Records
---
Amino acid sequence: MEHQPAAMPFARAGAPHLPPRRRVSDLMFRVIWALLPAIAAHAWFFGWGIVVQVVLACLFGLILEWVMLRLRARPAQPFLSDGSVLTTALLFALCLPPLAPWWVNATGMLFAVVVAKHLYGGLGFNLFNPAMVGLAVVIITFPIELSQWLAPRGLGEGLPGLIETVRAIATGHVSNGPAWDAISAATPLDQLRTGLQSQFLVSEIRADPVFGALVARGWEWVALASLAGGLWLAWQRVISWHAPTALLVTTLIISTPPWLLAPDLHYSPLQQLLSGGLMLAAFFIITDPVSGSATPRGKIIFGAGVALITLAIRRYGGFPDGVAFAVLLMNMLVPLIDRYTRPRVYGHPR
Amino acid sequence: MQLHSFPGGLALPHHKQASLAHPLERCPLPPALYVPVGQHQGEAGRILVEPGQAVRAGQPLTLAEDDYQVPAHAPCAGTVVGLVQRPASFPPESYRRCIEMVPADEACSDWDDEPGRRLPDWRRCNATELVDHLRAMGLAGLGGAMFPTAAKLRGDWPSIDTLILNGVECEPWIACDEALMRSRPEDILGGGLVLAAAVVAERIVIAVEDPMEQTAQALERAAERLGIAERFEVVRVPAVYPQGGERQLIQTLTGLEVPHDGLPQDIGLLCHNVATAAAAFDAVEHGRPLTERIVTVTGPGVAQPRNLIAAIGTPLSWLIRQAGGYTEHARRLILGGPMSGTALITDEVALTKGSNCVLVLDTAPAEPATSMPCINCGFCVESCPARLLPQLIYRAVAADDYDQAAELAVGDCIECGVCARVCPSQIPLVDYYRHAKGEIGLRALDQRRAALARRRHEARQERLAAEQAARARRRQARAEKLREKSAAADEIQAAIARARQRKKSAE
Ligand code: SF4
Ligand code: SF4
């Protein structure tokens, strides 16, 4: 009846003695699951492009990650399977135009994985959001490629098929000629910005069919799918509510009063929320833990700051969407934010 | 009572039923007892017995000379073998001095009271008499910290208005207080009256976890039966770990925070474990010194988990044998609970007054290699009950920046282990904080030593300088005297010369 265990002396380790609730890979793969609706909506409205870009970005990401881990003499298996590089790849691919040539994709991933992540010390040590570093670099180096968007499903001459998509991405050869003109369209944000800068009224600009039923044909559905995925993540407690809420609320607070006063001169709040990458940023980019703020109040400041800068760039800047730059700017402020938003420790004076 | 809440915390699986399914029973005496002489930080006072001496049950083995010493008593009649070194639970692989004792034949740990030791009519005693008596009976906090009860009852703080009896066992598996509250509710209430009288507190609050509704009602009924219901309030608190932590419980009950460099007594509160209250009742009503406690022996590695009334000094191996021995799954032996207990390498450790649970787990600890870098996910921040920034402290400690760790208030970490439990990177965070606290303590000591050395050095320098100055002064004085002397000699010479001159000129 009595049983002496073989394991005498017993194994010893510090408390607590319970297994952890979740692992890093578990979190990352939940983020990936939550991105799938947005990717599906993107594929429906803009065709095969996103699928090819996602595959390419994941491939580049994994290869670069493996090379960097080898160079830094780190174990490959735990870090390749933690899902972090795949998350970066997905987010980056979602920000690319569907037919962007493969070297755009490769350049972005190179900067994301090699520079932003590994040169700063690898997982957990990067100061900047890797996907946003990659995006900012390609926005600056390939401005033409980055502004060429397909017309969403139902506009233009129809979406290219899988073979055409692959060929276009492999060769970069649709970017001119009448065929391209037939299938491309400027994004709603682009049209608004250039239109307003040339003294058109919002109602005139919005006559264009790219604005669709709500604010941006196709885009609005990608944004709503991001919202759904993000809410699921918050419900699963993978992300905290602070940063997304701060971003969305700030956007509403800033954009509503001018729009109420002069709706013909300003973006509508809904336009701000549902076009471009703002919704994706709210739930998937500014919630990146590593490059975000550590404290709850800091997260709120971070989200609000990103909203502020994004709206300013949208209105006054030279780029179609300012999310990437807004996130990078706020990344720089994180140490400062963390310093001044420390919670009051138990028992310390108020 | 209007309840508040503490920040963070964690809902954990309860697992208390595992040991409570079996009735509370008395553990037979082992062949040899090892009564620890140092029950807490200090010693248990002067040793009163000699090898070979026969002792009565309850006879003091050591004598406490101040409130911070806790005397040990013989758990049963028997013979003292001598002073031996036995493995201690903490620090790992350390030893502790114990008095080895062989119980007499037929000896039982459930002996009759000795009327001489009882406090005659304790209700008439004043606070000093009560505290003195509790100290002589060897009372120490039974919740785990083993803090000397007398030192907790006596001190120069403002008046205490509320006594809190802590019946919140928030860690999974541990059920010894639950078993006690079920079996002896009246004695806990009686002990509450004793402790309240010792600090002249008016109000008594008993806190239990809200899933333990039956226990709460049993306590309320007992108070009715004894006719003291108006003195007591039984409060159900939410079952969130670490609700049973003194500071967290106070926050839940009152909304107040204990000052970080202070004690609950500073804000008029006093917190005692329910088991300590029952022991106080035994001490004054029956004259029974603290020589036994209830301990939970449980976990998937134990064949028949149960709660045992066991004599202090019983080896854990004996307790486990009473609970059916190990199962083949036994991998880890924990003294205390799974969140903050100490992992032992051997079951030769003896039961102390603070040992509430012997837990045998069936899982091996995580390999250190499986921990990943911190990804700043903030889960630890959300769940830290002390409102710290655990990940920043971890980074500071990992970078050996102890000043930064102190600045981030690592000293206020209660080592509850919540942050490590929620960390997806599986970082053994609490190990880092313990290390940092030790290091900061050592540095403070070093600094004190350095300051002392500097003061000594300066004093020496001053003394040397003073001596040198004195020597110089003496030398100068001597030189002057010499000069005076030589001046006098010159004069004499001159006078002689003059005299010679005169003589010559006279010739
Ligand atoms: S829970 Fe772990 S990984 Fe997350 S912030 Fe805290 S220490 Fe870092
Ligand atoms: S162990 Fe310390 S840092 Fe971690 S949750 Fe508990 S109090 Fe906070």
---
Amino acid sequence: MAPVLVLAEHDAANGAVKKVTLELLTLARRLGEPVAVWFGAGSGDALELLGQYGASTVYVADGSGVTDHPVVPMVDVLAALVADVSPAAVLVPSSADGKEVAGRLAVRTGSGVITDAVDIDASGVATQSVFGGSTVVHSKVTSGTPIYTVRSNSVAPEAAPTTCTAQPVSVEVSDVAKKATVTDRTVASKGGRPELTEAAVVVSGGRGVGGPEGFSVIEKLADSLGAAVGASRAATDAGWYPHQYQVGQTGKTVSPQLYIANGISGAIQHRAGMQTSKVVVVVNKDAEAPIFELADFGVVGDLFEVVPQLTDEIEKRAN
Amino acid sequence: MKIAVCVKQVPDTWAEKTLRPEDSTLDREAPDGVLNELDEYAVEEALQIAEAHGGEVTVVSMGPARAAETVRKALSMGADAGIHVQDDALHGSDAIATSAVLAAALEGKGFDLIIFGSESTDARMSVIPAMVAERLGIAQLTFAQRVSVSGSDVTIERVTDYGFDTITASMPAVVSVVEKINEPRYPSFKGIMAAKKKPVETLGVSELGLDVAAVGQAAAWSAVEDFAARPPKPAGTIVADEGEGGARIASYLTEQKFI
Ligand SMILES: Cc1cc2nc3c(=O)[nH]c(=O)nc-3n(C[C@H](O)[C@H](O)[C@H](O)COP(=O)(O)OP(=O)(O)OC[C@H]3O[C@@H](n4cnc5c(N)ncnc54)[C@H](O)[C@@H]3O)c2cc1C
């Protein structure tokens, strides 16, 4: 079986394998033999988990400047691997880095690229959910080595245990990669909550939250469910909540198992970032708010009454 | 300094977007075409850099005839000149071909900075800036929430999941910007009048030295097999809060095994 290269995304700070990597390994098994590609340090601790999800090999590209330059060293290594092992496909996460790696790799290897796939079948046909989830498209790469970027939470990771061995690859960082250098990394505190695009549950607040203090109600609910916090653009533009938590057209696209929208009207640009959530719960005091069209369960009411009660109930039931 | 800003005309984000049944391409005739919102931030950033360091801003766009309006919009904000790549052969081009066309339009013109919005609100691929940097063989500084120019160097803050990375390069460089970088200006009446007289060069594919057969839908390296509207979601349960709204959600979440 031909190998399928999977870019193993991991936490830049602690090296923990991201859940999307396990999802990619699960999809890769439909297309061939999954092989992980790891950039930077920390692969040793990941071997067991990568093996558990079916990767027999992890190519490790560490040292000599892989992480000193943005994006391009990953393209250099993947392009060399594409030439060496002739993979059936290359799968990368739909993160900012992942999409740029995919785009450049496509140009460099003469391959077609499909971004933001939510599913891939055994024949390589990808499913994409476009226009804010209103249209479902099936497409296929017709030239070169198919390259896919896949959204987090698209498939449930399935274990397929095997033994994973690390294989170091030599890294020749290209001259063009060296043209841009990372001089500093700034880590904003994320308060121990899961990452927005990876989280199984997202609790969001909008203009109805009323101000920065109001977000404490949203955060308490999120913490009772082990959820990530999201926000509408009205809330981030007003400076009530940091911009990187914005969900929607010009923010993050999330696809969690459960999305709880509080004080959010449901503008088309907000829906574009959350419409593919599996279950949607809405709290809004306006019964006419369009967000109710997406609700599996909705309460028409004041979020400052409903949300704290919900948080209490969850804590009661959990004990 | 010579600065290029690449802009795209997109359907208004408020409009219903649909694919054309005959060839699965976006119906660009139907909804109102507007300047891609994120590109407004790119134009603003280019103008601010030119104002601070001196220089000229050229707007570059690939798109059908009506995309000329989008080029004018950027000119009315204050850009100096425009290049509009327009050719029927381009219809249905994928990102690969689009990046080749833009790179050809930009190459050899001595641009120090080439600025993009970080994504278009219609295709949402976020790959064109990286692809253009790949083709031109110059530095890629993308997803910038801050850009500063000093001498021949440009430094950005690249937004990441954990915060941001500070990245530096010598010019020339490709930069893409996110929306928190600045507050785009509105075109003034004077700006709108002045834009009418600014030079816009309209170029076809062969004038860029590209093969017509290498662009457009037939040349795409990926193809749509089929598409369909997502089936409407069945109506959910909506209740009015009568003092037990929170508890009712908790019961629903328990039923659904979230608690
Ligand atoms: C190009 C473009 C891109 C955009 N990108 C995004 C994006 O990425 N993400 C995004 O979110 N938006 C985006 N927007 C903005 C979008 O159009 C809306 O303006 C925005 O989503 C509105 O946010 P909101 O729902 O929080 O606010 P509003 O629309 O003002 O809604 C607030 C809601 O809160 C309810 N409410 C008020 N008080 C309470 C209370 N006490 N209890 C319960 N409910 C209450 C109200 O009934 C109302 O429904 C974009 C717009 C454009 C033009």
---
Amino acid sequence: MQLIEIIEKLNLKTLTNVEERNVEGVFISDMLSDVMTNAKSGNLWLTIQTHKNTVSAANLVNLAAIVITHEKEVPQETIDLANRFYVIILGSDLSTYELVSKLVGIGLTP
Amino acid sequence: MHEEKCSHIWEMVDVIPCFIITEKCYHCGKIATYFSTEHTPPIEEYREGVHLWNFMGSAQSIKFNLKCTKCDKLEKFDELLGVMMCTGCDEKCEVNVLLKKLEPKRTWIYVAFGYLPIDEKKQLSPKQISILEDYFNQRRKSSKSTIKIVSHKLVNNIANCYAEIIKDVDMLCLTLPEK
Ligand SMILES: [Zn+2]
Ligand SMILES: [Zn+2]
């Protein structure tokens, strides 16, 4: 499924620059070491973790985008770093659980 | 398949969650880092040769090895503390020079860190670093970006570098007891 389609259907906020990417699956974790170990290339990463180091974890394993749930505010330094390194950060006011159910609803099934 | 002829496809194995412990010697000012699988590292100062180590902090991370899915060759990464993405903080740093050159092609530079002090601990070999780079590139399903991994020996000034090793801080990390 294409990232822009997901952004539009789920009304996600674009906190960084956005480009079209293919999304393959979802990964949920708030730990960077977990991303490094278990996330897969093309995954949409759902997290409440907003530290700037999320950018380096996302690029290391080639994630499609990071989605910050629970309307959590993202520090400007994280956004600036993400823009420089083409990491897409999106925001949602939904809880991770609610967002997952909507992702499944639009056809992004495990 | 015979190991030498195999074009290895690596997978992460032997993953152990552990803590990166940072200590400082108050005699010589050197910083030491190492892994601990214990929840409570020694937080009292202790002597080791000429050093008097004091606990500075810890963060959760992982240790792992890589194994080829085709020939079963195991490559151990006992000397790897973690990787850090270069964010280009120092004009004089060779890693930054490399980033500037490769950034337009979306090649991101990661620095593989060994244990500190660099001159007292066994460090990763160029071959290990190259295997690590192969592994993370093999994990990417898109060819739109690649990663390059270099040794921390290329960093101009580790103490002043703004980038951080990928690790989990302020979540499950340990803190010193209140005084
Ligand atoms: Zn092999
Ligand atoms: Zn010392």
